[in-house]
Amino acid sequence: MLTIDGHCDLLSSLLEKGLESFNDNNEQISRERWHLGGPDLLVTAIYVSQKYLPQQKEAKALQMAGIFWKLVANKEFVPVLFREDLVSKGKKALLAIEGGEPISTKEDLFAFYRLGVRMLSLTWNYQNHLATGCLESYPGGLTQKAKEIIPTAEKLGMILDVSHLSQESFWQLLEITTNPIVASHSNAAGLYQHPRNLTDQQLGAIAKRGGVIGVNFCPEFLSEKTQKTVLKQIIYITKTIGSSHVGIGSDFLGISESVDDLEHLGKWLSLDKELKNAGFNERERENILGGNFQRVFDQVLKSTV
């Protein structure tokens, strides 16, 4: 069974700080930390910062795709493009887009798919040409453009990520999709109220679809800045929808502060011991630490056969 982190911002960090920062053990993610205590597979997001919008959205997205493939060329990890890649040896990475600003047409979607993108979230907190984000003051929803693009994404075998969507956008996306969906880095609002956290109804809908919620380490989405609070989120979601729909989406390098005892990727695997102490059995721990995400990836990704 793979261990999987459903979301990190390694690529945008390397874009800003340079590839050499991958060697810096002061960063939340570094080569050494990943190999010493990190998961088998990282979902690495192309996130175009607000400061680059709108003029540079395509250029910066392409740069981050280039960084991903540069790391592949340097044999830092194996790219996960098809379900067979999930069983390849060594560290692995799946390329995602966080915020659909670089995608304006179906042709853009095909292009990014060919560049290796296998997960897509439509927006980042705010309104764009595809959807309304969770921090807007109005419910909004999906745009006509999104309703045209989403079915194509499903047919291609892209995993759809509902983190950052407004509730109306969330429910409208469910109406026009059939595959399992993920909230790659989100927490439960029933335990801590925040616009980025999901209601029990949303958790239930994701579970009913066979999807996964990746618990986020961002202190802003937790009641306290402690590892125990992360465990409380895992326990709450498990009690609400079952352990088969819980994962980990640390959001490392996308968060400025970190949780005590989970400060960096080198401590990621320490969650296994904490889950055991909290009463989770071996099968449950394997699923939470990656098996559940692996199930969705295996179901949605295309096969090479």
What this model shows, in words?
The protein is of the alpha/beta class and 305 residues long. It has one domain: TIM Barrel, CATH 3.20.20. Helix content is 37%, strand content 12%. It has 10 helices and 9 strands. The strands form 2 sheets. Strands 1, 2, 3, 4, 5 and 6 form a 6-stranded parallel beta sheet that branches. The protein has a 3-stranded parallel beta sheet with strand order 7-8-9. α7 links the parallel β7 and β8. α1 crosses α3 and α4 runs parallel beside α5. The longest helix is centred in the C-terminal third of the chain and has 19 residues. The protein is globular and about 50 Å long.
Number of helices: 10
* Mean pLDDT across every amino acid position: 97
Classification by helices and strands: alpha/beta
Number of domains: 1
Radius of gyration: 18 Å
Total strands: the figure is 9
CATH topology: TIM Barrel
Low-confidence stretches: none
Helix content: 25-40%
The helix/strand order is EHHEHEEHEHEHEHEHEHH
First and last CA, distance: 22 Å
What summary fits the major beta sheet? 6 strands, parallel
| Beta fraction | 5-15%
Q: Please, what is the CATH homologous superfamily?
A: Metal-dependent hydrolases
Which descriptor suits the 3D outline? globular
For the record, the CATH class is Alpha Beta
Q: Do you know the CATH architecture? A: Alpha-Beta Barrel
